[in-house]
Amino acid sequence: xxxxxxxxxxxxxxxxxxxxxxxxxxxxxxxxxxxxxxxxxxxxxxxxxxxxxxxxxxxxxxxxxxxxxxxxxxxxxxxxxxxxxxxxxxxxxxxxxxxxxxxxxxxxxxxxxx
Amino acid sequence: xxxxxxxxxxxxxxxxxxxxxxxxxxxxxxxxxxxxxxxxxxxxxxxxxxxxxxxxxxxxxxxxxxxxxxxxxxxxxxxxxxxxxxxxxxxxxxxxxxxxxxxxxxxxxxxxxxxxxxxxxxxxxxxxxxxxxxxxxxxxxxxxxxxxxxxxxxxxxxxxxxxxxxxxxxxxxxxxxxxxxxxxxxxxxxxxxxxxxxxxxxxxxxxxxxxxxxxxxxxxxxxxxxxxxxxxxxxxxxxxxxxxxxxxxxxxxxxxxxxxxxxxxxxxxxxxxxxxxxxxxxxxxxxxxxxxxxxxxxxxxxxxxxxxxxxxxxxxxxxxxxxxxxxxxxxxxxxxxxxxxxxxxxxxxxxxxxxxxxxxxxxxxxxxxxxxxxxxxxxxxxxxxxxxxxxxxxxxxxxxxxxxxxxxxxxxxxxxxxxxxxxxxxxxxxxxxxxxxxxxxxxxxxxxxxxxxxxxxxxxxxxxxxxxxxxxxxxxxxxxxxxxxxxxxxxxxxxxxxxxxxxxxxxxxxxxxxxxxxxxxxxxxxxxxxxxxxxxxxxxxxxxxxxxxxxxxxxxxxxxxxxxxxxxxxxxxxxxxxxxxxxxxxxxxxxxxxxxxxxxxxxxxxxxxxxxxxxxxxxxxxxxxxxxxxxxxxxxxxxxxxxxxxxxxxxxxxxxxxxxxxxxxxxxxxxxxxxxxxxxxxxxxxxxxxxxxxxxxxxxxxxxxxxxxxxxxxxxxxxxxxxxxxxxxxxxxxxxxxxxxxxxxxxxxxxxxxxxxxxxxxxxxxxxxxxxxxxxxxxxxxxxxxxxxxxxxxxxxxxxxxxxxxxxxxxxxxxxxxxxxxxxxxxxxxxxxxxxxxxxxxxxxxxxxxxxxxxxxxxxxxxxxxxxxxxxxxxxxxxxxxxx
Lengths: 114, 884
Description:
The complex is a heterodimer.
Chain A: H1 12-24, E1 29-30, H2 31-41, H3 52-61, E2 65-71, E3 77-83, H4 85-109
Antiparallel strand pairs in A: 1-3, 2-3
Chain B: H1 2-16, H2 20-43, H3 48-59, H4 62-71, H5 76-94, H6 96-125, E1 136-143, E2 148-151, H7 155-164, E3 168-183, E4 186-195, H8 199-203, E5 209-210, E6 225-229, H9 230-237, E7 247-250, E8 253-261, E9 274-277, E10 296-301, H10 307-324, E11 335-341, H11 342-382, H12 384-392, H13 397-433, H14 448-474, H15 480-484, H16 490-526, E12 536-542, H17 551-566, E13 571-577, E14 592-593, E15 608-613, H18 616-620, E16 624-627, E17 641-645, H19 646-652, E18 663-665, E19 673-679, E20 694-698, E21 706-713, H20 721-731, E22 738-742, H21 743-750, H22 752-786, H23 788-796, H24 801-835, H25 847-873, H26 877-882
Parallel strand pairs in B: 4-9, 6-8, 15-20, 17-19
Antiparallel strand pairs in B: 1-2, 1-10, 1-11, 3-4, 3-7, 3-10, 5-8, 6-9, 7-8, 12-21, 12-22, 13-15, 13-21, 14-18, 16-19, 17-20, 18-19
């Protein structure tokens, strides 16, 4: 039709998903805990901590993670997220994809680096 | 896993329909997060208010994030669909004129096809409302040398079938009889059957009151028990439950009511009032009575036994019968027993006409779809601006097509619902005013299958009429702006024109079928039955055997009634016959001329035998060609006399041999009679068939218990009924007059099915023609409207009205009409060939019918073209040019 293809959604959102899932692969955690972790390891959430939640709910609706109410360390009710078996598989796929992407980008930009 | 699934479904359902549950969850999560942030900032030494402000800033826009969170649960496709649905409904409400037209056209087509399908469903697909109808069979006999197939059996043969077969769990005999119910001094004819007790378990029918009669009550003498039908019980006895156990008087004998049953055996022709045990008198079980057929046999195959196995067994049984009674079933006669599935037998008769009607409504449906497609495509053109805005705002082609499809789906859904309601109304109307005996409408109604059919038709229709305009609307969207400057693309115009051509072609096919059927009907109606049916009253008289056992008593009563009726003012002639033409079962016999070598059995033809009273030929206007008619002098104590008809005379006395005075045998066992006359041949069952050979004997010499009287009158025959009733009461007050009718009515009834299918197809043809006219008008009106500017310029530059008409209307109107007509005429030649069986004295390619339909179509097309043509011709260029 000659209409431009919509850009593939492989930007920061994808990265965020990957980071969330890699945190959850270490064990169940609530949203605040995940945000904490992400803030420690990188600055993806520099803008809005709340943007974590749409991502969490989307991953849950896709069946990669599941959630339930539990009591947090300081005795407050919190929603804890956990990887499903499908999510576990997805993490490995995503990670290897990521590695390949990084390697490819490296390969392209290497000759250009002074 | 299950839990996960449950959460998922609940969350999605909540996102789609009610968001409270998901809202609460998201709220609590976000609150927890904010609380934790705030707490941590406090711990870091910030004042509480400052901590809260900072936490909110770090968290982001809570409302928006909450929306985004909830959004992640939605099914995008469903959401879009529901949005389109809302748009669709809104669009239909906005353009009411269009919606009403389209819905009306579709609803009529869906209603008509649903009504026909409900009849098809009840009468063909599920004709027997009994458990496991596939196991039900009818057993009958063939005498192939006499061209007799599917003949009923005789009482001894029913006994043989029961004793000699093992394929059936139940075998039941059924015999029709005349029943007179007497309450106090009033007698009334009712419809009833003698049935074997096994009919109840055979059909799986359980009485609603009491219990059915037992096998031992079939024994002659113990048979005075009766089961009433539910309808009769409600109508005649006010649904009195105390009726069971009491006695009622039938045919002057007391019968004990043992049960009230739901309707059953309706497929044998009518809704029966009552059932009595089928019992055979000792006379009926003698070897000679093997030839006295008249027992209908229905059986239920044992589970696991199929029709083929049952047929093999019957072939063996038939062989054994032929060995046991060689005189009765000689090898020459081509005797065999057969079993046929009851479902196909009952449905078979009506299957063909209904299939034809289904095809006709299918064509009507096609026209309706083409029509609405054209309306939609015109709409789509008018909405080009709206669509181009949508496209400019980023709607993909799939979205635009999807939206247009959803609109047509909404249209079809509304039309489908209206159509089902319409079908329901049509069926109720037919039930009230339609010919009752012709189509057993009892089982016909709107059920799950019928509704499923209507939904299916609506869906298919919406795809048919929605997809094409949607696709044409979807193409060339980039040219939308360029295109709107001119009056539509060539592709779209060609599509509109081919839709018009399709409608015209389909209407031509329907109209030609209708024309052929109308012509056939008129010819059949005019066909000479061989008698004069005008002003002939007929009624049945059934004598109770208890009072009229001796032949002399019967002929005494007949003669007394005849002479009394002749003296009634307005009566021209009085006769009577045991088997009246167009009165159901006609019987069959053979004939042998005494003194000739016995004709080979295989070549003997069949004749229709009747016994008549003097005056019968006069009453019916049948000409006596040679010799004489029966006279009062032919009595029980004079030698038996016979009359044959012209056809029989030609067959048995060829080459001018004189039949008068010759003796014949073979009509009835032990009867030898002398031919005294030859009369004209009459048709007995179907005006479209050639007359069958007839042989008449005198009822005054040996009359049966039931006769149909024929009274020729000078005026309207029905006005004489009270006088006739009065005369009969003078002789025997307890005898009822039953089945009062006229000869004209009987002949007309025989045409009922032909008439009904003709009327229906004429209705469909007319509907198709008006739809095609509306379609043609719509397209041309649209074209004229689109080309106003161009026409305005031409007129301003000096074009003459006729030139404008020619340019705008004639080409776009007449071209598709001509094309459609040619295609329709060619298709009709093929379609009418399928009709051949239903046609009478007319060829399926009768030129006058084709010419008439073509003429009618041209006139209709011209009428449809006239209004837009006039509008184009009288267009004011000033107004037209100023508009844009």
